[in-house]
């Protein structure tokens, strides 16, 4: 579940407002196969929304909670009840505001060759091997999340 939520939350990293389109690829090592889907990100002062129109699914991250919509079904998740999502919200906000130092509690930050690598602390390292991303101005060139089970997710802004 952590990986799925990580995917959705990190999909929100495509900086700056209005609708930003992205493509994501999730590689599943056990199946030796990838799953592809397109999404739309909307970043606002009051919320961040990740929508997958083809699946009729969305996640809205507000200051108070997370609203998951799947078709007509809505589920409200509190940050207090889900520490994983709390960490993700901090990561998203840190990258979005270019204040990556705000997540030093959870990740060691290394910058080299034009991209940034986040090495997880012991707290997060049981699930995530590392995260790599590259931004040019406000455009996310790529975000790749490597999991400890050899799965990975690659996200690319398409507009």
UniProtKB/TrEMBL annotation:
Its name, as the record gives it, is Outer membrane lipoprotein carrier protein LolA
> Source species, please?
Arcobacter nitrofigilis (strain ATCC 33309 / DSM 7299 / CCUG 15893 / LMG 7604 / NCTC 12251 / CI) (Campylobacter nitrofigilis)
